[in-house]
TrEMBL record:
GO terms for molecular function: arogenate dehydratase activity; prephenate dehydratase activity. The lineage of its organism: Eukaryota, Viridiplantae, Streptophyta, Embryophyta, Tracheophyta. GO terms for cellular component: chloroplast stroma. InterPro entries: ACT-like_dom_sf (IPR045865), ACT_dom (IPR002912), Preph_deHydtase (IPR001086), Preph_deHydtase_CS (IPR018528). It is an enzyme of class 4 (lyase). The keyword Amino-acid biosynthesis applies. Signal peptide: none annotated. It comes from Turnera subulata. This is Arogenate dehydratase. It is found in: Plastid, Chloroplast stroma.
């Protein structure tokens, strides 16, 4: 995997402005003035129809409440493949040397009748011809889009080089070009704006629990989960060369890393405050850049190497089996299959009713489909439901979005039937992705 360097300092500590640089010497992506429109990722007619056919047959169940986003009636701003409306186009910045199109210039998709995948295979060249382009049958490659710019996949991750997310990007896509982003949201936008081909984002850790922000962003954006990787996370306590533990008054790291080392830090007996920053490697970089001899970082051994730090303690996660699950996101879904274990992620909401959650979950239980994860998040459009009872007052019910992962492929009839049943009980249902499960053999985290 090739990392892009050097990164900018952490935005949360040292405010930085977006740097526009050359490709190959670019800094971390900063908040992109987000602009995307559905027409920037939709396929031209013929191909689009075939995709839609496939999608409606096996992946996406339309929702009764079409979208969490307000539909817009701007021309070209239609529904996306999951029924979500496209966001307004405002402004697109040229970010880190990757030129994105402006509102009136969203020809990021080649406007011949090729899918991005086939265009990518041809080196991304746009064929301009007045003749109607000949339609070729879709191939498997069309439906698993390849990068549009040669063979190297660009993968956005949150953090700077040395972050665990960068390692996860490398595990998911071994020869990728890893693109550091300063926020999770920026990684989503990087894919939506075709600055990156994929994003790799953490969703849960075995010790720290769910990364809620990414659950919320999955719903707000319209990317598809196309895979997952589980990365053993082996934390080290890093300080500048020569610094002893007794000098340390502050330990900084990503909140998840601090949570994963909570007990070990206490056991080490450091007289130090704990402070949360944007990412683990960024913490190490910050200490190095500012020559802080009273501060330690929790980060990877690779971050120590990259930023000239020393490892004071190795393996300080509270459990040696510490593992973070990341999902890979793309603009287009992959075709679900049945020849290997697949997982499917959905999100749904329901109106009032009794035992709705029980009914939904039983749709899976009756079909012997195992659930691997359930998460609830506030329903941002409707966080509270008031139920008035003239006699006793007003009950205030919290409303939720439920995220469920289950072990089946959307290519399986039992999964399709389960979702058809779930739809009966829900007011909103979206398939976030159906993707191969990470089946790599288990090895507890090691320090390499
Ligand atoms: O800060 C990093 O190095 C990250 O990649 C982020 C992150 C997270 O968000 O959970 C990823 C994996 C580890 O669990 C700790 C932190």
């Amino acid at each position: 995997m090739q990392a892009i360097s050097p990164p900018c300092p952490l935005k949360s500590i040292v405010p930085t402005r977006p740097r526009l640089g050359r490709v190959g010497a670019v800094s971390k992506l900063h908040s992109i003035q987000c602009v995307y429109r559905s027409d920037s990722v939709h396929f031209p007619n013929g191909v689009g129809l075939s995709r839609a056919d496939w999608q409606s047959s096996c992946a996406i169940l339309s929702s009764k409440v079409v979208s969490q986003q307000q539909p817009t009636d701007k021309p070209g701003a239609g529904k996306d493949l999951n029924g979500a409306a496209a966001a307004d186009a405002d402004h697109v910045a040229s970010v880190n040397g990757h030129k994105a199109a402006g509102p009136m210039d969203l020809n990021l998709v080649p406007i011949n009748n090729k899918s991005p995948a086939t265009a990518g295979a041809a080196g991304g060249a746009t064929v301009t011809s007045n003749k109607p382009a000949q339609q070729k049958p879709l191939t498997i490659t069309d439906l698993s889009p390849a990068p549009m710019h040669g063979s190297q996949l660009r993968v956005a991750y949150q953090g700077v080089p040395g972050a665990y997310s960068e390692a996860a990007a490398g595990k998911a896509y071994p020869n990728c070009e890893a693109i550091p982003c300063d926020q999770f949201e920026v990684a989503f936008q990087a894919v939506e704006l075709w600055i990156a081909d994929r994003a790799v984002l953490p969703v849960e850790n075995s010790l720290g629990g769910s990364i809620h922000r990414n659950y919320d962003l999955l719903l707000r954006h319209r990317l598809h989960i196309v895979g997952e990787v589980q990365l053993p996370v082996h934390h080290c306590l890093l300080a500048l060369p020569g610094v002893r533990k007794e000098y340390i008054t502050r330990v900084i790291s990503h909140p998840q890393a601090l949570a994963q080392c909570e007990l070990s830090l206490t056991k080490l007996g450091l007289q130090a405050t704990r402070e949360a920053v944007d990412d683990t490697a960024g913490a190490a970089e910050y200490i190095a850049t500012n020559n802080l001899r009273d501060t330690a970082a929790i980060a990877s051994a690779r971050a120590a190497e990259l930023y000239g730090m020393e490892v004071l303690e190795n393996g300080i996660q509270d459990d040696s089996g510490n593992v973070t699950r990341f999902v890979m996101l793309a603009r287009e879904p992959i075709i679900p299959r049945t020849d290997r274990p697949f997982k499917t992620s959905i999100v749904f909401a329901h109106d009032k009713g009794t035992s709705v959650l029980f009914k939904v979950l039983s749709a899976f239980a009756f079909r012997n489909i195992s659930l691997t994860k359930i998460e609830s998040r506030p329903h941002r459009n409707r966080p509270i439901r008031l139920v008035d009872d003239a006699n006793v007052g007003t009950a205030k019910h919290f409303e939720y979005m439920f995220y469920v992962d289950f072990e089946a492929s959307m290519a399986e009839v039992r999964a399709q039937n389960a979702l058809a049943e779930v739809q009966e009980f829900t007011s909103f249902l979206r398939v976030l992705g159906s993707y191969p499960m990470d089946m790599t053999p288990w090895s507890p985290s090691r320090g390499d």
